[in-house]
Amino acid sequence: MSDDTARPDAPEEYRSRSSSSSGESASREPGSHCVVLGASIGGLFAARVLSDTFDRVTLIDRDTLPETDENRRGVPQGRHAHAILPAGTKWLQEMFPGLLEDFEASGVPVVREPTEMHFAPGGHLLSQEGRYADPIPTYQPSRPQLEGQVRCRLRELPNVEVIDRSEATGLISASDGRRVIGARVVHRDNGAQRDLAADLVVDATGRGGRTTRWLADLGYDQPQEDRVAVDIKYVSRNLRVAPGSLGRRKVVIVGACPGRPTGATFLQHGEDHWMLTLIGYGGHHPPTDPSGFLDFAKPIVPPDVFEALCAAEPLDDPIAHRYPASVRRRYERLERFPDGLLVFGDAICSFNPVYGQGMSAAALQAGALKDALAEGGDQLPRRFFKAAARRIEVAWQMAVGSDLALPEVAGPRPLPVRLSNAFFGRLMSAAEHDSALTQEFVKVSSLLAPPTILLKPATIGRVVLGNLRRRGKAEARQQM
Ligand SMILES: Cc1cc2nc3c(=O)[nH]c(=O)nc-3n(C[C@H](O)[C@H](O)[C@H](O)COP(=O)(O)OP(=O)(O)OC[C@H]3O[C@@H](n4cnc5c(N)ncnc54)[C@H](O)[C@@H]3O)c2cc1C
Question: Which domains, from first to last, does the chain contain?
């Protein structure tokens, strides 16, 4: 049995090492080992933070992980538009110094000015005037490029090992079931089973989230699930677009709105390389045949963008992805949870992807993990789940609130949701002609600032004034 191998009734020396490793220090404990299951964005972000605390971190994924920036089977969403919000970008800058500069040097487009972004959420094209007061750059690597570059940097860390083609099939617990002491993995090539001893196991296996079942096997309750059924279909295609045909714009995002539960994201990835993703809620799904796909875009995107789409050279066939529901697992509400185990990323919360929050939410969870580890290992799961729940709360409320603003999405709409949707509707109306309001709104939707900044008296004043002006203009037009 190798040093890596855990047994359900682990020897005394293992148990005492694992309980002491749950001790008070945030610095690396000699011999401590963490196993992260899932090496996608969630697992990679968690592993980066854990590498500062654990002597060794082993990342496990069932896929073959490519050496270059390629799509892969376990991340089918990588073939669709993926934007990392400024909150996620800020975290990347902190944890992987130089990564963003390398992206830019390799030709990844960076949005720095309002004129470069056509952003029309909820039927309102937000102001493209002025300059950003706090520069909030948005980097636009493709999803495989982002994941590939982060994975590459993690592989360079001397205490991180990435093992692919290995499927996590279960947890190993101490004989009293109160602590997880390892994970069982099966190699895909030869079916060989290996038990990895660990002081901490992190489940980052995505929205399928294995932990719910594993908890039941260990005699624990499963977390309560909050769910909003959205029945969204994505259809995407890569295109070659003549440089300059979209003016200064590097990204075009048109969100769904009441009466038109469809949207589009058109993202520049290279000088002439763009990805078009079309989305539709239940009953309004985009088709995958090339001409139907183009027709679907026509009423959504601005006319000049449609012209550019018609003239563009397709680089592949349209490809589809279904997303049934946003799911949030309330681990922070469980009364009992084994030590030595955490859940991370989409396995905690999978957001409706149209708001582009998932990877940035994983970055926010990584911040929560860093803080929780800094306070030592005592009651780590309870402290981490509570901190992570607090950090992703705004993202969840914004995504659910925006979905419920669409009459096409079923679900209860309590008074606070109706009030906040009414306020956001008016704010976005006013922001069409108010660059300062647009910037405040973008800070909140980028998860850089809490929504309370929108309740400052000066901001509310601008919202009221903007709507009065708008109404005045509409009445004047009617009288003409
Ligand atoms: C269509 C779509 C579009 C999206 N667009 C955006 C966007 O624009 N911006 C954004 O921020 N987010 C977006 N997201 C969300 C984003 O992709 C996720 O939030 C992000 O990938 C983090 O997820 P994760 O690492 O927790 O899980 P995943 O990305 O799902 O990865 C899970 C990993 O676990 C591995 N795995 C699964 N089971 C096992 C097992 N038993 N053993 C070993 N390995 C296993 C898989 O191979 C995979 O590598 C989108 C999602 C979808 C579906």
Answer: 12-69+146-223+330-399 (3.50.50.60), 227-324 (3.30.9.10), 415-479 (no CATH)
